[in-house]
Write a structure and sequence with these properties.
Shape of chain A: globular
Helix content of chain A: 25-40%
Strand order of the largest sheet of chain A: 7-8-9-4-10-11
Oligomer: heterodimer
Largest sheet of chain A: 6 strands, mixed
Number of strands of chain A: 11
Radius of gyration of chain B: 33 Å
Strand order of the largest sheet of chain B: 6-7-5-8-4-3-10-1-11
Distance between the termini of chain A: 36 Å
Strand content of chain B: 15-25%
Largest sheet of chain B: 9 strands, mixed
Order of helices and strands of chain A: EEEEHEEHEHHHEHEHEEH
Distance between the termini of chain B: 28 Å
Strand content of chain A: 15-25%
Radius of gyration of chain A: 18 Å
Largest interface: A-B, 30 and 24 residues
């Protein structure tokens, strides 16, 4: 069974004449341990797809199943609990709480889940150390570089040991080098730590780190590509595909 | 929860200025409530300690319901009650002494400014209490005359020894008393006692055959037995007597209580304004942290967790503010108590003790402070919980509320104002008071819709002022883009200023009235004033002989006096003042609001008639023409109300004026407590001054004063009081200052990026500073405009309310309005100082990067 399964997933913003269809009967499946990238031009609905999978937003029609459980039937509290325990998020703007330290930020999901703060911080510190931030535990977000902040955010996504990591343009706000670091870190997350990652990006070079690419256009899945391994050609192939979609 | 506390604490400490301002709003309210509730009870305690002078094993005390004296034979009704072991009838009077009377040394502060004269039957007194008298002294004996027993401490103060004499004022002038026995030094609080025989006390106070207290010791202290005994005593004495504590000076308590209520109202208003400020802050906090909150939600924080986090932040501020408020309130209270100690002692003869703090007050103040904070946080916390995870992912754009608010709330506001105006016209006191509240509420409701036009009008003014700076438009735009926030802020200003202007109106009107009354009722050439004006109970009067001697002085045209007794109507204590209907109108006069002056005086002379003041009519619900039953020491007597009038000294207290003859017949009192004297035309003060003062020297309980000087003194005193009051009011407007500072600080923080942009495109620091100042002045102008409107209305309401008791006409409070405008604009400018500096100091690049 797939970890993620979407069934005719549809999202329409607004009503009447101003209605915009962001997603139009999307059916995809993601298996456990996969690193999937979602690509497409601006406004193709890729972020919306991610938000719906993560239970951050509700579909207009259709359903999302995580490990076979339908999100549409959950109330707000159940969704919240699902997010807390099964899903980790990584955002473009890092979204760290400015008044908390790196380790406190990374510990947030487990702290929210009722784990004792000391234990929560221990777990967070382990992840941060793995990501090379062992010496910056007590730093506040504004004392960290963009790449470092995003690594804190990934540690935060992993601290509750979720099966699924959802990343929305995780490198969108970073320079090329930091972007590569983060993308390869996300690949490690699947290969080394056995999680599933779904990443939205418009950058072919970053998408090339994934196992599989799903292309969206105007809210519909238009193509899928499996990549055997990361190489420069892949990036070029993806770039070409993207430009063909944009036309 | 731990995380919530951590978040609350970090967020709070991360915005020091805003946190300080918001917390200060709570502190201030709690300070006023706590501080003032320390001061007034401390005064009351002092007052009580003065009054309660009970010693020995007294189980039951009997007094007359009026608080006055009653015939001595009443005590014999107790003879047959088996449960009574012993009783002692006494006549007790607090005698206020003139300055330096005891120590004779103006340089030293007076330790003794009053004594309790206690007349007892020696045998009976000793059956109730053991008097430890040092040898060779002795206790009083039944046939003693001019003998007294005092404590060692009083003897020391007077520098007298056994066998020597002390003088005390009495109705017949100074009375010399020989010390026959000395008791151990006084240790309990309250006045020193001078024990004399009952007959002696009756002679000295001019109350023959009268007593005012019966102390009773019971055979059993068992609770049931006591209840039974009390029932038996009540049955024997009838309903004119009360059992329990002696409660003279209830009128004093009443005015202190009133003061306390007024201050509590101020405190609650201050807290209310504090609530506005907190509400404003947290609303912004939630808007500002949309992204953080959304992120927390995305990470798995439930709605309840978010609500909890915001409420925790409120709680931390509430607790912090309340604790600091209580501490500062205590210091403030202690300071005021210390400050008031001296005037209280010299004017009212009250010795104040340590500040009184009751646990209930502590808890109430704390709960009020925390409660208001939490309540004001509730709505923002709820709206925070409605932030969706999606909010974390949207780019943040400062919100601009351009909603038109001229909808339902505007109409509701107009309707409320309409009802308030109708209420005012109706003349019904209840409706008028309700109208005051409606008017305020209505103004707050219509304010958002009127905000834009008002801001525009003032904006034009500013534009002219800041010619060609291009700032006024921006300031005006900034201000009107958050009408909700501005309205809440302006409302705080509104309430503060409304109070200033309203009370300004009241004081202007009161001063006018006082001036009239002073000249009308105390306009005589000489006044003989007792130590405690208007707390007549504790004043030792003078027998008619004093007035008679004054009358004999060459050049004196007329002398008239006021006499006093305590009475009661329907269980309500009434100050009964007696005047001579023939001479009183010649020398002084009452200010009549209802009834014919000449007819009223004539009626007093002919039967049981009385003139009453507004407080009497209002309290007892009586009207002119009614006949009421007056409780007197000799039983109930019917009195007919013939007119409504007032004199200056008795305006506050429930008062009835009757004739000297009736007071003597029904209350057994013939001593004068206040005397006024007029000279013949053409006679100068200097001609008679020496003679008059020589006579008055025998009656040191009176201060002799030329009427003009007294009026001048009173007016000066009153002006000082008004000045103090205005100062206090400005103090109370402080929350509006905090509110404005807070809003401006919020505006600056929220628009950091915009300010960076304005700077980037070429605005100088000075221009940015001016921008904030302009916004502040606009904000202040809006609040002031509404405040003046509300204040004028409320002032009118208060004056018409008082007008039902006092003859008072509304004077337009020009001073109050000017003060209001000055305070409003000053506060506006003051409020801008810190935020303006902050805005000007922003680094352009950092500001642009700011999220």
């Amino acid at each position: 069974m797939s970890l993620i399964q979407t069934e005719n997933l549809t999202k329409i913003y607004g009503t009447g004449e101003t209605a915009v269809t962001a997603l139009d009967h999307v059916n995809i499946a993601v298996n456990a341990g996969e690193f999937v990238a979602v690509m497409g031009p601006s406004g193709c609905g890729k972020s919306t797809l991610l938000h719906l999978i993560g239970g951050l937003d509700r579909p207009t029609e259709g359903n999302v199943r995580i490990e076979g459980v339908a999100l549409a039937e959950m109330n707000d509290d159940a969704l919240t609990k699902l997010r807390r325990q099964k899903i980790g998020f990584v955002f473009q703007f890092f979204n760290l709480i400015p008044v908390l330290t790196a380790v406190e930020n990374a510990a947030l999901p487990v702290t929210l889940d009722g784990v004792r703060p000391a234990e929560a911080k221990k777990r967070a510190a382990e992840w941060l150390t793995r990501f090379g931030l062992g010496d910056r535990l007590a730093a506040r977000p504004d004392q960290l570089s963009g790449g470092q902040q995003q690594r804190v955010a990934i540690a935060r996504a992993l601290v509750s040991e979720p099966a699924l990591i959802l990343a929305d343009e995780p490198t969108g706000n970073l320079d090329t080098r930091s972007g590569d670091e983060i993308a390869s870190l996300l690949r490690d997350v699947t290969k080394k730590y056995g999680r599933t990652v779904v990443m939205v990006t418009h950058d072919p070079r970053i998408a090339a780190y994934a196992d599989r690419i799903i292309f969206l256009k105007d809210g519909k899945v238009v193509d899928e590509t499996n990549l055997e391994r990361k190489n420069k050609d892949n990036a070029q192939v993806l770039a070409d595909k993207m430009s063909s979609l944009s036309n | 929860m731990n995380l919530q506390l951590t978040l609350a604490w970090r967020y709070l400490t991360g915005r020091v200025l805003r946190t300080t301002l918001t917390t200060f709003a709570v502190i201030f309210g709690v300070l006023v409530i706590f501080g003032m509730n320390i001061v007034l009870p401390t005064m009351m305690e002092g007052f009580k300690a003065n009054m309660m002078a009970a010693g020995g094993v007294v189980d039951v005390t009997v007094t007359h319901v009026s608080g006055g004296a009653f015939p001595a034979e009443v005590a014999h009704k107790l003879d047959d009650i088996a449960a009574i072991r012993a009783y002692s009838a006494s006549l007790e009077r607090t005698i206020n002494l003139p300055p330096d009377f005891v120590d004779g040394d103006p340089a030293r502060p007076d330790r003794i400014s009053a004594v309790n004269l206690v007349g007892v039957e020696p045998e009976a007194a000793r059956s109730l209490q053991v008097y430890m008298i040092d040898e060779p002294g002795r206790f009083l004996q039944p046939d003693d005359t001019n003998a007294a027993v005092i404590s060692q401490s009083l003897a020391d103060a007077w520098s007298v020894r056994l066998g020597e004499t002390i003088s005390l004022p009495s109705v017949d002038g100074l009375t010399d008393l020989t010390i026959v026995g000395i008791l151990p030094p006084l240790t309990r609080p309250g006045n020193e006692e001078v024990l004399v025989t009952l007959a002696q006390a009756q002679a000295m106070t001019g109350q023959p055959e009268q007593i005012n207290t019966i102390r009773i010791a019971l055979t059993s202290v068992d609770e049931a037995a006591r209840a039974e005994a009390v029932a038996a005593i009540e049955a024997a004495l009838g309903s004119d007597y009360q059992i329990g504590s002696l409660d003279p000076g209830s009128e004093m308590f009443a005015s202190l209580k009133l003061g306390q209520a007024a201050f509590n109202m101020f405190g609650v208003l201050a807290l209310f304004m504090g609530g506005f400020i907190i509400f404003n802050t947290f609303r912004t906090v939630v808007a500002e942290r949309r992204r953080d909150i959304g992120m927390l939600r995305a990470l798995g924080a439930t709605r309840r967790t978010i609500t909890g986090a915001i409420l925790t932040e409120g709680l931390v501020q509430g607790v912090l503010g309340s604790v600091i408020g209580i501490v500062l309130g205590y210091l403030f209270g202690a300071f005021v108590v210390r400050l008031a100690a001296e005037p209280m002692k010299s004017f009212l003869n009250i010795t104040m003790g340590k500040p009184v703090v009751s646990p209930a007050l502590l808890i109430t103040s704390f709960l009020l402070g925390v409660g208001v904070t939490l309540l004001s946080t509730l709505l923002p916390a709820r709206s925070a919980s409605r932030v969706t995870p999606m909010d974390a992912l949207r780019p943040s754009v400062a919100e601009v509320e351009y909603k038109r608010r001229a909808g339902a709330s505007f109409i509701a506001g107009l309707v409320m104002i309409g009802i308030a105006l109708i209420g005012l016209v109706s003349g019904n006191m209840g409706l008028i008071a309700l109208g005051g509240l409606l008017f305020l509420g209505g103004l707050i409701l219509v304010a958002p819709a009127l905000l834009r036009p008002i801001a525009w009008a003032f904006g034009r003014l500013l534009a002219w002022f800041y010619a060609r700076q291009g700032i006024a438009d921006l300031a005006q735009g900034n201000l009107t883009r958050q009408p909700g926030r501005v309205t809440v802020t302006a409302s705080a200003t509104l309430i503060g200023l409304a109070i200033i202007v309203a009370l300004g109106g009241m004081t202007t009107s009161l001063t006018g009235m006082m001036d009239d009354l002073l000249h009308k009722t105390l306009g005589s050439d000489y006044l003989f004033i007792p130590p405690s004006v208007a707390v007549w109970n504790s004043d030792m009067g003078a027998s008619p002989e004093f007035a008679e001697r004054l009358r004999q002085v060459e050049g004196v045209e007329a002398v008239t006096s006021l006499r006093f007794a305590s009475g009661a109507v329907n269980g309500q204590a009434v100050s009964v003042l007696a005047l001579d209907p023939r001479t009183y109108p010649q020398v002084a006069g009452l200010d009549f609001t209802e009834g014919n002056e000449a007819e009223a005086y004539a009626a007093l002379a002919s039967g049981r008639s009385m003139i009453v003041n507004g407080a009497f009519l209002a309290t007892l619900g009586a009207k002119v023409g009614d006949t009421v039953e007056m409780t007197t020491p000799n039983g109930p007597r019917p009195y007919t109300i013939v007119a409504e009038a007032v004199d200056l000294l008795n305006a506050k207290v429930v008062t009835a004026y009757i004739s000297h003859a009736n007071l003597a017949a029904d209350f057994g009192r013939t001593d004068d407590v206040f005397i006024m004297l007029n000279l013949k035309p053409g006679v100068a003060l200097e001609d008679v001054d020496a003679q008059i003062k020589a006579i008055a020297a025998d009656y040191p309980q009176f201060t002799v004063m030329a009427g003009k000087k007294y009026i001048d003194d009173m007016m000066q005193y009153m002006n000082a009081v008004w000045a103090a009051m205005f100062f206090l009011l400005i103090f109370l407007a402080i929350p509006s200052l905090i509110a404005m500072m807070n809003t401006l600080a919020i505006n600056v923080i929220e628009r950091t990026r915009e300010i960076g942009m304005v700077r980037a495109v070429g605005a100088t620091r000075k221009q940015v500073r001016r921008l904030v100042v302009a916004e502040a002045l606009l904000l202040a102008a809006v609040g002031t405009a509404f405040g003046l409107l509300a204040g004028l209305y409320l002032g009118y309401v208060i004056v018409s309310g008082i007008g039902t008791m006092f003859p008072m006409t509304y004077h337009f409070p020009l001073a109050g309005i000017l003060a209001g405008i000055a305070v409003g604009l000053l506060f506006g400018a003051l409020a801008a100082v810190v935020p303006a500096r902050q805005a000007a100091r922003l680094q352009v690049v950092e500001a642009l990067r700011y999220e």
